[in-house]
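Let's do one together. I've listed all components of the complex below, 396 residues spread over two lines.
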Amino acid sequence: MSVKYPPGVKPRKTVEKPCEKKQKKIIASAANRGMVFEADINETNSFYIEKGLALVYKRPTPINVVHVDYSHGAKITHAYFEAQSTTDYNGVYKGKYLDFEAKSSKSRTSFPLNNIAKQQVEHLRRVMKQGGIAFFLINMSSLNETYLLDAKYVCDFYEEHPRKSIPISDIREKGHLVKEGYRPRYDYLPIVDEFFLK
Amino acid sequence: MSVKYPPGVKPRKTVEKPCEKKQKKIIASAANRGMVFEADINETNSFYIEKGLALVYKRPTPINVVHVDYSHGAKITHAYFEAQSTTDYNGVYKGKYLDFEAKSSKSRTSFPLNNIAKQQVEHLRRVMKQGGIAFFLINMSSLNETYLLDAKYVCDFYEEHPRKSIPISDIREKGHLVKEGYRPRYDYLPIVDEFFLK
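Okay, and this is what the predicted structure of the assembly comes out as:
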């Protein structure tokens, strides 16, 4: 489980062994790539809200608060990030409930499913059972390609091969290429119209 | 704006003047009343999820993280609670998007609108514009009565009389009494069926 750092929060420099350094660099680069894609999706959603097209928000990262110092106006002095038990995004579009997870990978050949948590798969299954629209936005950063994949397809794949990766050929075949632009950055609503609302 | 304390977090004792003590006691009692109602709504939602009837979650309280100490495994050492810019609850029911705010008041005569933030009214307007189901659950704790009020009615009232209170006679006339029980604690879905989905 990777820790998600809120925007603006960066790891502090500490004394470490060279082997740890390399490992941390890999994690930090994965976190940064995820953060760039997340920022782009947030910008897309802001654009949709501004234009009155949809109302989609990022859920705040849950934080477990251990101690609050009330002598300095409710300053939290001890707390930990918790894992998101749902997906990162949900909202409303044309009256329908929308729920999705946005993930980025730098692999050129496949999307590794270890990017997805079991409880997210369970959550998306529940969303689909309630008739909500559920999907993944998968950004293949090295290929400059982003796909919308139906949550049903990803959840089925996950349950059949939990430790595997979805090959890029399958992503291209089963997914829908999201148009990339300036504003909105990733225009995913036309795909929702075509594949969920028709 | 009142600070929301996460479950388990209690104000620390500090040296204070007698007049401050009384003020703090009032705030603490309002916070406790709100927390009891919130816990009951969370329990109701857990019951709905368990039975596969609906999928409604409480949004995590947003926290502004100022500093994280990575020498102790990502321990947050400096952060502040932020005001919720949306409502507390959202989810999916029969494919439809559901969004609501749950509030408690001990008044016997009216519900004071200063319990509601301007950005919550704006958020609920946007939800309605997108065709989502939007409402308030208002618990009049001294009367042991809880009402579901259409967000349109509350938002209109708020914009016409932002500093006023909704009289209990209006709440009883315009609202729908929520059945209280053991499980679910506040059975609000039958009202959603009758007044939003028919």
